[in-house]
């Protein structure tokens, strides 16, 4: 798996005082952004991405990860207190959190939301740490045949989930696949189906 030296090296980066201050600041900013309805992590991350261009990779990843997690949690605060979810992930929190807040148990609801966010994030992070090498090893074994079968699987899923005729789903999925293949290839840089046009 991972060696102990890598864990200690990562802990040394995370627990520097600059990074700890950035964790605190990004957490507070993420809570405020998550509390505002309609502005979730998908809006917050592109807004803060330009700040990471001049940073080292470690602090930049810490900033974006903390901002994402705190923004997602901050959406549950407005769901509990205002019955308006700040993020899509906290839509279900309105069902139980807001009635608890109306009964005067808003602090209990916020505490439950905080603990469930912490436990879920911890389990997800632990799963990511231990499954990343396995998934990366599996993904590196993909060859063109596997990519083709993955594209066919996508077409089948589009066709089976479309309403009405399955044939219409196949045709629309195939048309989308055809349109997406026009332009520059991401892997090789060659132009595909552009007829020697620059644009």
Low-confidence region ranges: none
The outline comes out as: extended
How large a portion of the residues is in β-strands, by DSSP E?
under 5%
The helix count comes to 8
Structural class based on helices, strands and sheet pairing: mainly alpha
Largest sheet: 2 strands, antiparallel
Keywords:
mainly alpha; 2 domains; 2 strands
What this model shows, in words?
With 199 residues, the chain is an all-alpha fold. It folds into 2 domains: 4-140, no CATH class; 144-192, no CATH class. 71% of the residues lie in helices and 2% in strands. It is built from 8 helices and 2 strands; from the N terminus they run ααααααααββ. It has helices at 4-14, 17-35, 41-48, 57-82, 93-102, 106-140, 144-161, 166-180, and strands spanning 183-184, 191-192. A two-stranded antiparallel sheet has the order 1-2. The N and C termini lie far apart (47 Å). The mean pLDDT is 87.
Write the layout of secondary structure elements.
Layout lengths: L3 H11 L2 H19 L5 H8 L8 H26 L10 H10 L3 H35 L3 H18 L4 H15 L2 E2 L6 E2 L7
Antiparallel strand pairs: 1-2
How do you describe this structure in short?
The protein has 8 helices and 2 strands. It is mainly α and 199 residues long. It has a two-stranded antiparallel sheet with strand order 1-2.
